[in-house]
Automatic annotation (TrEMBL):
It comes from Sutcliffiella tianshenii. Residues 1-438 form the Amidase domain. InterPro entries: Amidase, Amidase_CS, Amidase_dom, AS_sf, GatA. This is Glutamyl-tRNA(Gln) amidotransferase subunit A. The lineage of its organism: Bacteria, Bacillati, Bacillota, Bacilli, Bacillales. It catalyses: L-glutamyl-tRNA(Gln) + L-glutamine + ATP + H2O = L-glutaminyl-tRNA(Gln) + L-glutamate + ADP + phosphate + H(+). The active site is at 52 (charge relay system), 127 (charge relay system), 151 (acyl-ester intermediate). It is an enzyme of class 6 (ligase). Belongs to the amidase family. GatA subfamily. PROSITE patterns: AMIDASES. It holds the Pfam family Amidase. Its EC number is 6.3.5.7. Allows the formation of correctly charged Gln-tRNA(Gln) through the transamidation of misacylated Glu-tRNA(Gln) in organisms which lack glutaminyl-tRNA synthetase. The reaction takes place in the presence of glutamine and ATP through an activated gamma-phospho-Glu-tRNA(Gln). Keywords: ATP-binding, Ligase, Nucleotide-binding, Protein biosynthesis.
Amino acid sequence: ESYKRIGEVDGKVQAFLTLDEENARKQAKVLDEALGKEKEHGLLFGLPVGVKDNIVTKGIRTTCGSKILGDFNPIYDATVVEKLKKAETITIGKINMDEFAMGSSNENSAFAATRNPWDLDRVPGGSSGGSAAAVAAGEVFFSLGSDTGGSIRQPAAFCGVVGLKPTYGRVSRYGLVAFASSLDQIGPITRTVEDNAYLLQAISGVDQMDSTSANTEVPDFLSGMTGDVKGLKIGVPKEYLGEGVSEEVRQSVLDALKVLEGLGATWEEVSLPHSKYALATYYLLSSSEASANLARFDGVRYGYRTDNAKNLLEMYKQTRAEGFGPEVKRRIMLGTYALSAGHYDAYYIKAQKVRTLIKQDFEKVFEKYDVIIGPTTPTPAFKVGEKTKDPLTMYANDILTIPVNLAGVPGISVPAGFVDGLPVGLQIIAKHFDESTIYRVAHAFE
Ligand code: GLN
C-alpha cells in the first residue's frame, strides 16, 4: 500500500530519496510467516516507516541530502533502525532533508526540494521536511526525523502532523550523522499523539554505543494518556506570543489554551527572558560543532572524491568545494571562525554561557508550571523560494523551536487548526525526561 501511494503522489511531493522495495517485501514476507506462530507481536508489527536520510541504514544508501555522501552505503544500522527492526516495522525507504540537516525548508537538499502536501507551492519545513511530508501525504504510517534546532517540530507544524523532539539523551544518536552533537536528537513524526508515543517507546533507551544516551528509566509513555489534565499548570511565555508571531497563529494558541482550560487546566503568562539571544547562540554553537563534525568528509573515508586534483591537499579542498552546498559551507566557515584562536572567547565561550542562562530560564518556569505552551512557528508554511535569498530570514523562522534544543528539554508540535487552509502547530514543552506529561496534554488536546 505504501509503495502504491508513493507511486501516486511522490512525483509531486518528492519526499523519498531512496526506495527499498525489494528488501521491504522480503521483510514483509518474513513477518507474514511469523504471524500466527506462538510469539506475541508488538503494536508496530508490519507498519511501514520512513527514515530520514541522516540515519544510517545497512546497505541502503544514506546521503544526508548531500552530494558528498551521494553514493555512501553504510555498513551498519543506527541503533534506532535496529530497534525498529526489533519492533517489526518495515523500512520503506530513505527520506529527503536539507543537506546535513541545515535548513528550515528542504530547499537545501542537493537532490530535490520536497513540497508541502497541503499546498505544493509551499515548503514542508526543514530539515526533516521529507519525513513530515511523507506522513502527511499518507506515504508511510510514520517516520523518523532529527531535531537539532527545530527540525522535527517545525516541519510537523507546517505539514499538520505530530512531531516530538525527545529530551537530549532519551534516544541513542549512534548512527545519526552528526551535525551539532550537543543538540541533535532523533524523534518520531506521526499522524496522532498516540502513535507518536508508541514510536518513542520503541526507539528510547540507554545505548552503550552513545555515551550521551541517558541511563534513565523509560516510562510507559501511554499510561498517562487518559484525557485528564485537571489541575495542570501551564506557563505561556510572553516572548512566544510577541513581535513576529502572526495574529492568526497567536489566536490559534489562545484557542488551544481555552480548550485546555475547559478540561480543567489553568494558564498564566510567564517569561523566558533570554529567548531573544537564542538564535544567535544556536547558530554560533551549532555551526562550531558542525565545523568540527564535518571535517571527516575529506574524500578519503566516505563518499564523494573529486577527479580534479593533482595532489593530496588539492584533493581535500576540491572534494569539499564540489561536495558541499552553499549553506553547509556558510556554516563551516562561521563555525571555524567562532572556534579560531582569536575569537573563541568572544563567540564560542560567550555563546556557551548564554546557553546556560537559557537553560536556567526553563528551569525557573518549571519550578511552578508543568508545561510551557506556545506556537511552534511564527507563521504557517511559507512559499517555495520565499526565503532562499536571505539566510537570516530563514534562520528567524526557528526562533520558537531553538530554545528547547539549547535547554535539552523535550518538545512536541501538535496540529492546532488551520490558517487560510494551512496547518498551524502548537508547541508543548516539559521538563527533562518528562515526555509523559507532554503526551498527556497533547492527547487531551487532540
Ligand atoms: N533550521 C535549523 C538549522 O538550519 C534546523 C536544524 C535542525 O534541527 N536540524 O540549523
